[in-house]
Amino acid sequence: MKKKIAISIISITLMSLINTSFASDVCKKSLGVVSCGSGSVKNVDALGYVNLNGTTITNRLGVVGKVTAKNANLNAVSCIGDLTIKNSVVQRQFNVTGVTTATKTIFLGPIDITGPETTFNNSTTKKITVNKAEHSGEKIYLTGSSVVNGSVIFESGNGFVMESSGASVTGSVIGGKIIHQ
């Protein structure tokens, strides 16, 4: 696992140094911060803080740092750091190492998470895999009308799906249990 994280950090760091060509009318890059507004870009690779507002990324978002996305349409996401996403769509793979909070977001591909807690509020997902982290007892919070259309797999064998009324998992919970709230 540490090797996977180290390789991801090195790749994203190199890409952030190489990929400095953003469409100037969509993304602005300054020291440690990338801010993107309405419009479309192929890739955003960064080390630091990324703010997306109405942005479409047609290929890949790769970040080591913190991400805030609102009204975004993302293809594939890889983030080492905390990520907050709202009113958005993720088309393919969603891979985050850190704390994730999603509100009114649709995930059309698989979700791969390493972190202590993840919250889905009024969101729809497919299969979720929670990787074994330094600690066990990882939690997935499903609030509002969130639905997981597939299974939730906790590799630690000690995970919890905290499910509020109105939320559901259509598949199995493997390596964990559902706690109704």
Notes on the structure:
The protein has 181 residues and is mainly beta. It has one helix at residues 2-18, and strands at residues 27-30, 33-36, 39-53, 55-70, 73-80, 83-86, 89-90, 94-97, 100-103, 106-107, 111-114, 117-121, 124-125, 128-130, 139-143, 147-148, 152-154, 159-163, 168-169, 173-174, 176-180. The strands form two sheets. The protein has an 18-stranded mixed β-sheet that branches. The protein has a three-stranded parallel β-sheet with strand order 13-16-19, with no helix packed on it.
Q: Classify the beta-strand content into a percent band.
A: over 45%
Question: How does the overall form come out from the CA principal axes?
Answer: globular
What is the mean predicted local confidence, pLDDT? 89
| DSSP strand count | 21
Runs with pLDDT <50, length 5+? 9-21
* DSSP summary: helix tally: 1
Residue share in helix: under 10%
Taking the alpha carbons of the first and last residues, their distance comes to 32 Å
The major β-sheet equals: 18 strands, mixed
Rg on CA atoms, Å: 16 Å
Main structural class: mainly beta
Query: Strand-and-helix sequence, N→C?
Result: HEEEEEEEEEEEEEEEEEEEEE
